[in-house]
């Protein structure tokens, strides 16, 4: 397990961990971004559910307006 690639990756990981420990504001910033992203994703999903419901409701109205839901063209 002492291949040059593994040694290099362990060294790079150690440097990044040390940087993260010394810069707590970076971690806090990342947490803020995660929270903001989660809120935006939640709002987007909520809007998608509402829009889907509206579209399906209109689809049902249109289908009922055609009687049996659109049997063949007969042409």
Automatic annotation (TrEMBL):
Keywords assigned: Membrane, Transmembrane, Transmembrane helix
TM segment ranges: 33-55
Keyword Transmembrane helix: yes
Protein name from the UniProt record: Flp pilus assembly pilin Flp
Source species of the chain: Nonomuraea soli
